[in-house]
Design a protein that fits this description.
2 domains; alpha+beta; 4-stranded antiparallel beta sheet; Aspartate Aminotransferase, domain 1; YdhG-like; YdeI/OmpD-associated family protein; elongated
Amino acid sequence: MPTDPRIDAYIDARADFAQSILAWLRQRVHAACPEVEEAIKWSMPAFLYRGRPLANMAAFKGHATFGFWDRQALATGMEGEAMGQYGRIERLSDLPPAEVVEDQVRAAMARIDSGAKPARAARTPKPEAVVPPALATALAGDAAAAATFHAFPPSCRRDYCEWIAEAKRADTRDRRVADAVAWLREGKRRHWKHESC
């Protein structure tokens, strides 16, 4: 079975209780999916199947975790107390039998083979930003700045509004309004200094 030495090092660096759990989980994945690829993703051991994420595992101070990339489709009912499908794993007896884990790995592989993508919760759009009165007054007196401001997407308008609204002192707010109007007149977004040319 092809293994990644970085995962060996990860397991070896963990507490004794976690080493046995991680090694057992790794064996289950390889038993169910001989063509699995190992990698380190997001600073933890990850398993890939046909180039797509299949599962990952991790160990912390008092527990280990194991989870499938497609969380919703492969739910176990043990989610919630820690990341992954098996909650907080503190000992090998916290895990289902080997055949159950291997069947779940095969189910995860089948989802990848079918081309199914993990379902992700739809993002609800943020409401339109409330324009601070000082900015609204300044924009009313500068048609070019107002045109740029209103042509920006909502996130860019929100950047300006939040920046000005979070000023605690009136002189800070006034300075920010003046900067905002000058930048808007030039067609610049709030974080224009950080944008690549």
